[in-house]
Design a protein that fits this description.
- The chain has eleven helices and ten strands.
- The chain has one domain: 2-enoyl-CoA Hydratase, Chain A, domain 1 (Alpha-Beta Complex), CATH 3.90.226.10.
- It is an alpha/beta fold.
- The chain has a seven-stranded mixed beta sheet, sandwiched between helices.
- The mean pLDDT is about 90.
- A hairpin with a 2-residue loop joins strand 2 and strand 3.
Protein backbone atom coordinates (compact mmCIF):
# COMPACT_ATOMS: atom_id res chain seq x y z
CA UNK A 1 0.00 0.00 0.00
CA UNK A 2 1.26 3.49 -0.87
CA UNK A 3 0.26 6.77 0.76
CA UNK A 4 0.44 10.44 -0.17
CA UNK A 5 1.68 12.55 2.77
CA UNK A 6 1.01 15.88 1.05
CA UNK A 7 -2.58 16.11 2.33
CA UNK A 8 -3.23 17.52 5.79
CA UNK A 9 -6.97 16.88 6.20
CA UNK A 10 -7.12 13.60 4.25
CA UNK A 11 -5.54 10.18 4.26
CA UNK A 12 -4.73 9.07 0.70
CA UNK A 13 -4.00 5.34 0.54
CA UNK A 14 -3.57 3.40 -2.70
CA UNK A 15 -3.70 -0.38 -2.80
CA UNK A 16 -3.73 -1.94 -6.24
CA UNK A 17 -6.66 -0.51 -8.21
CA UNK A 18 -8.31 1.05 -5.15
CA UNK A 19 -7.70 4.44 -3.51
CA UNK A 20 -9.15 4.95 -0.04
CA UNK A 21 -9.67 8.63 0.62
CA UNK A 22 -10.38 9.26 4.30
CA UNK A 23 -11.65 12.55 5.72
CA UNK A 24 -9.25 12.93 8.62
CA UNK A 25 -10.40 15.50 11.16
CA UNK A 26 -11.99 13.10 13.68
CA UNK A 27 -11.55 15.57 16.54
CA UNK A 28 -13.88 17.91 14.58
CA UNK A 29 -16.20 15.10 13.35
CA UNK A 30 -14.44 15.49 9.98
CA UNK A 31 -16.02 18.90 9.44
CA UNK A 32 -15.46 19.94 5.83
CA UNK A 33 -13.22 22.98 5.96
CA UNK A 34 -12.07 25.12 3.05
CA UNK A 35 -8.74 23.32 3.10
CA UNK A 36 -10.45 19.91 3.06
CA UNK A 37 -12.56 20.92 0.05
CA UNK A 38 -9.44 21.99 -1.83
CA UNK A 39 -7.64 18.79 -0.88
CA UNK A 40 -10.57 16.59 -1.94
CA UNK A 41 -10.59 18.31 -5.34
CA UNK A 42 -6.84 17.80 -5.65
CA UNK A 43 -7.16 14.16 -4.61
CA UNK A 44 -9.96 13.52 -7.13
CA UNK A 45 -7.75 15.02 -9.84
CA UNK A 46 -4.90 12.76 -8.76
CA UNK A 47 -7.21 9.73 -8.87
CA UNK A 48 -8.49 10.64 -12.33
CA UNK A 49 -4.97 10.95 -13.73
CA UNK A 50 -3.78 7.61 -12.35
CA UNK A 51 -4.60 4.97 -14.97
CA UNK A 52 -3.92 2.20 -12.48
CA UNK A 53 -6.83 3.28 -10.28
CA UNK A 54 -10.36 2.04 -10.93
CA UNK A 55 -12.14 2.75 -7.64
CA UNK A 56 -12.10 5.58 -5.10
CA UNK A 57 -13.59 4.82 -1.68
CA UNK A 58 -14.47 7.96 0.28
CA UNK A 59 -14.82 7.44 4.03
CA UNK A 60 -14.43 9.25 7.35
CA UNK A 61 -12.05 8.62 10.24
CA UNK A 62 -13.52 7.92 13.67
CA UNK A 63 -17.17 7.58 14.70
CA UNK A 64 -18.72 9.72 11.97
CA UNK A 65 -18.36 10.20 8.23
CA UNK A 66 -18.67 13.98 8.62
CA UNK A 67 -20.57 16.63 10.56
CA UNK A 68 -20.82 18.74 7.39
CA UNK A 69 -19.55 22.23 6.69
CA UNK A 70 -17.14 23.71 9.24
CA UNK A 71 -19.48 26.23 10.89
CA UNK A 72 -16.53 28.21 12.19
CA UNK A 73 -15.90 29.25 8.57
CA UNK A 74 -19.47 29.85 7.38
CA UNK A 75 -19.83 33.44 6.09
CA UNK A 76 -16.34 34.34 7.35
CA UNK A 77 -14.92 32.81 4.18
CA UNK A 78 -16.43 35.69 2.18
CA UNK A 79 -14.37 38.07 4.31
CA UNK A 80 -17.35 39.18 6.40
CA UNK A 81 -19.35 38.44 9.52
CA UNK A 82 -17.04 40.08 12.05
CA UNK A 83 -19.55 42.72 13.10
CA UNK A 84 -16.95 45.46 12.98
CA UNK A 85 -18.20 49.05 12.50
CA UNK A 86 -18.67 50.03 8.85
CA UNK A 87 -17.92 46.49 7.71
CA UNK A 88 -18.74 46.10 4.02
CA UNK A 89 -21.10 43.30 3.08
CA UNK A 90 -19.53 40.81 0.66
CA UNK A 91 -20.31 41.63 -2.95
CA UNK A 92 -22.35 39.27 -5.09
CA UNK A 93 -19.25 38.65 -7.20
CA UNK A 94 -17.34 37.46 -4.13
CA UNK A 95 -20.22 35.22 -3.08
CA UNK A 96 -20.84 33.74 -6.53
CA UNK A 97 -17.16 33.21 -7.33
CA UNK A 98 -16.45 31.67 -3.92
CA UNK A 99 -19.44 29.35 -4.07
CA UNK A 100 -18.64 28.26 -7.61
CA UNK A 101 -15.07 27.39 -6.58
CA UNK A 102 -15.74 25.80 -3.21
CA UNK A 103 -19.24 24.37 -3.69
CA UNK A 104 -19.97 23.84 -7.37
CA UNK A 105 -16.51 22.77 -8.49
CA UNK A 106 -16.09 20.66 -5.35
CA UNK A 107 -19.28 18.67 -6.03
CA UNK A 108 -18.54 18.38 -9.74
CA UNK A 109 -15.09 16.92 -9.01
CA UNK A 110 -16.81 13.92 -7.41
CA UNK A 111 -19.99 13.67 -9.52
CA UNK A 112 -18.03 13.79 -12.79
CA UNK A 113 -15.07 11.69 -11.68
CA UNK A 114 -13.97 9.20 -14.37
CA UNK A 115 -13.41 6.44 -11.82
CA UNK A 116 -16.00 4.51 -9.81
CA UNK A 117 -16.70 6.29 -6.53
CA UNK A 118 -17.99 4.56 -3.40
CA UNK A 119 -18.96 6.36 -0.20
CA UNK A 120 -18.83 4.61 3.17
CA UNK A 121 -21.04 6.26 5.81
CA UNK A 122 -21.15 5.71 9.54
CA UNK A 123 -22.35 8.00 12.33
CA UNK A 124 -23.24 11.55 11.31
CA UNK A 125 -23.46 12.56 7.67
CA UNK A 126 -25.09 15.97 7.54
CA UNK A 127 -25.11 19.17 5.49
CA UNK A 128 -22.38 19.27 2.88
CA UNK A 129 -21.33 15.74 3.84
CA UNK A 130 -24.79 14.46 2.90
CA UNK A 131 -24.36 16.10 -0.53
CA UNK A 132 -20.97 14.44 -0.92
CA UNK A 133 -22.29 11.01 0.04
CA UNK A 134 -25.23 11.31 -2.37
CA UNK A 135 -23.26 12.12 -5.52
CA UNK A 136 -20.94 9.12 -5.48
CA UNK A 137 -21.75 6.18 -7.76
CA UNK A 138 -22.42 3.85 -4.84
CA UNK A 139 -23.19 4.79 -1.23
CA UNK A 140 -23.23 2.17 1.50
CA UNK A 141 -24.33 3.27 4.96
CA UNK A 142 -24.65 1.77 8.38
CA UNK A 143 -28.26 1.13 9.40
CA UNK A 144 -27.89 3.58 12.27
CA UNK A 145 -26.06 6.33 10.34
CA UNK A 146 -27.70 9.74 10.70
CA UNK A 147 -28.27 11.89 7.63
CA UNK A 148 -29.69 15.43 7.52
CA UNK A 149 -29.67 18.54 5.36
CA UNK A 150 -29.17 20.54 8.54
CA UNK A 151 -27.65 23.53 6.74
CA UNK A 152 -31.09 24.26 5.28
CA UNK A 153 -32.07 25.61 8.71
CA UNK A 154 -29.36 28.25 8.58
CA UNK A 155 -30.77 30.32 5.72
CA UNK A 156 -31.39 28.10 2.73
CA UNK A 157 -34.89 26.60 3.24
CA UNK A 158 -34.73 24.31 0.23
CA UNK A 159 -31.94 25.90 -1.85
CA UNK A 160 -30.16 22.56 -2.01
CA UNK A 161 -27.42 22.21 -4.67
CA UNK A 162 -28.46 18.62 -5.42
CA UNK A 163 -32.20 19.29 -5.40
CA UNK A 164 -32.91 17.95 -8.91
CA UNK A 165 -31.08 14.62 -8.34
CA UNK A 166 -32.87 14.34 -4.98
CA UNK A 167 -36.27 14.83 -6.60
CA UNK A 168 -35.44 12.20 -9.22
CA UNK A 169 -34.23 9.74 -6.57
CA UNK A 170 -37.11 9.95 -4.10
CA UNK A 171 -39.84 12.10 -5.60
CA UNK A 172 -40.29 15.82 -5.14
CA UNK A 173 -42.60 15.63 -2.12
CA UNK A 174 -40.13 13.67 0.01
CA UNK A 175 -37.18 15.73 -1.27
CA UNK A 176 -38.94 18.96 -0.34
CA UNK A 177 -39.77 17.68 3.13
CA UNK A 178 -36.17 16.73 3.84
CA UNK A 179 -34.68 20.01 2.64
CA UNK A 180 -37.32 22.20 4.29
CA UNK A 181 -37.18 20.56 7.71
CA UNK A 182 -33.53 19.48 7.73
CA UNK A 183 -34.70 16.53 9.85
CA UNK A 184 -32.54 13.53 10.62
CA UNK A 185 -33.12 10.24 8.78
CA UNK A 186 -31.37 6.93 9.38
CA UNK A 187 -29.24 4.90 7.05
CA UNK A 188 -32.07 2.39 6.80
CA UNK A 189 -34.58 5.10 5.82
CA UNK A 190 -32.04 6.54 3.39
CA UNK A 191 -31.84 3.18 1.62
CA UNK A 192 -35.62 2.87 1.48
CA UNK A 193 -35.88 6.34 -0.12
CA UNK A 194 -33.12 5.73 -2.65
CA UNK A 195 -30.74 8.24 -1.07
CA UNK A 196 -28.10 5.53 -0.55
CA UNK A 197 -27.47 2.29 -2.42
CA UNK A 198 -27.94 0.06 0.61
CA UNK A 199 -27.76 0.04 4.40
CA UNK A 200 -26.08 -2.70 6.40
CA UNK A 201 -25.44 -3.37 10.11
CA UNK A 202 -22.68 -1.11 11.39
CA UNK A 203 -20.37 -4.04 12.14
CA UNK A 204 -20.67 -5.20 8.51
CA UNK A 205 -20.10 -1.80 6.88
CA UNK A 206 -16.35 -2.05 6.24
CA UNK A 207 -16.70 -5.60 4.93
CA UNK A 208 -19.51 -4.68 2.51
CA UNK A 209 -17.65 -1.65 1.15
CA UNK A 210 -14.48 -3.69 0.61
CA UNK A 211 -16.48 -6.43 -1.14
CA UNK A 212 -18.08 -3.87 -3.47
CA UNK A 213 -14.77 -2.11 -4.19
CA UNK A 214 -13.10 -5.41 -5.11
CA UNK A 215 -16.07 -6.35 -7.29
CA UNK A 216 -15.72 -3.09 -9.21
CA UNK A 217 -12.07 -3.92 -9.84
CA UNK A 218 -13.18 -6.91 -11.91
CA UNK A 219 -14.28 -4.45 -14.62
CA UNK A 220 -11.98 -3.35 -17.43
CA UNK A 221 -10.49 0.14 -17.38
CA UNK A 222 -11.89 1.14 -20.77
CA UNK A 223 -15.26 -0.35 -19.91
CA UNK A 224 -15.40 1.83 -16.79
CA UNK A 225 -14.33 4.92 -18.75
CA UNK A 226 -17.03 4.36 -21.38
CA UNK A 227 -19.62 3.64 -18.71
CA UNK A 228 -18.74 6.80 -16.85
CA UNK A 229 -18.89 8.84 -20.06
CA UNK A 230 -22.40 7.52 -20.70
CA UNK A 231 -23.34 8.26 -17.09
CA UNK A 232 -22.06 11.84 -17.39
CA UNK A 233 -24.08 12.37 -20.55
CA UNK A 234 -27.15 11.01 -18.76
CA UNK A 235 -26.48 13.39 -15.85
CA UNK A 236 -26.47 16.29 -18.27
CA UNK A 237 -29.73 15.21 -19.93
CA UNK A 238 -31.34 14.83 -16.50
CA UNK A 239 -30.19 18.28 -15.42
CA UNK A 240 -27.60 17.31 -12.79
CA UNK A 241 -25.02 19.82 -14.02
CA UNK A 242 -27.63 22.56 -14.14
CA UNK A 243 -28.73 21.59 -10.63
CA UNK A 244 -25.23 22.16 -9.26
CA UNK A 245 -24.98 25.51 -11.04
CA UNK A 246 -28.42 26.47 -9.78
CA UNK A 247 -27.43 25.40 -6.27
CA UNK A 248 -24.31 27.57 -6.41
CA UNK A 249 -26.35 30.65 -7.32
CA UNK A 250 -29.02 29.92 -4.71
CA UNK A 251 -26.38 29.37 -2.04
CA UNK A 252 -24.86 32.77 -2.81
CA UNK A 253 -28.30 34.39 -2.60
CA UNK A 254 -29.06 32.63 0.68
CA UNK A 255 -25.92 34.04 2.30
CA UNK A 256 -27.33 37.51 1.64
CA UNK A 257 -30.79 37.10 3.18
CA UNK A 258 -32.32 39.85 5.30
CA UNK A 259 -33.05 38.74 8.84
CA UNK A 260 -36.02 40.13 10.72
CA UNK A 261 -36.02 40.67 14.48
CA UNK A 262 -38.23 37.63 15.12
CA UNK A 263 -36.06 35.26 13.01
CA UNK A 264 -33.06 33.20 14.09
CA UNK A 265 -29.83 34.58 12.63
CA UNK A 266 -27.02 32.05 13.07
CA UNK A 267 -24.28 34.49 12.05
CA UNK A 268 -25.42 37.04 14.63
CA UNK A 269 -25.84 34.40 17.36
CA UNK A 270 -22.45 32.88 16.59
CA UNK A 271 -20.83 36.28 17.02
CA UNK A 272 -22.54 36.85 20.35
CA UNK A 273 -22.62 33.33 21.81
CA UNK A 274 -20.02 31.26 19.98
CA UNK A 275 -20.38 28.58 17.30
CA UNK A 276 -21.29 25.64 19.53
CA UNK A 277 -24.04 27.38 21.50
CA UNK A 278 -25.48 29.06 18.39
CA UNK A 279 -25.54 25.71 16.57
CA UNK A 280 -27.32 23.91 19.41
CA UNK A 281 -29.95 26.63 19.77
CA UNK A 282 -30.57 26.54 16.01
CA UNK A 283 -31.53 22.87 16.21
CA UNK A 284 -33.14 22.97 19.66
CA UNK A 285 -35.82 25.22 18.20
CA UNK A 286 -36.85 22.31 15.94
CA UNK A 287 -36.46 19.66 18.61
CA UNK A 288 -38.93 21.52 20.81
CA UNK A 289 -41.46 20.84 18.04
CA UNK A 290 -40.57 17.14 18.01
CA UNK A 291 -38.48 17.35 14.81
CA UNK A 292 -34.99 16.03 15.35
Amino acid sequence: MSTNPSYETLLYEKEGKIVRLTLNRPEKMNAISIQMRKEIMAAMNEIENDDDVLVAVIKGAGKSFSGGHDLNQVYFRYGAGTGQPKERRPSQRVRLHGDDQLLGRFLRSVLYCWKITICQVQGLCVGGAAHLSFITDITIAADDAEFAFSQERLAFAGSNPVLIPLMLAMGWKKARELVLTGRTFSGREAAEMGFVTRAVPADKLEEEVERMAKAMCLLGRDAVAMGKANTHLAFDRLGFHDSLKQGTVMHALATNVRWEDDEYNFVRERRERGTKEAFHELHDRWRRLGIK
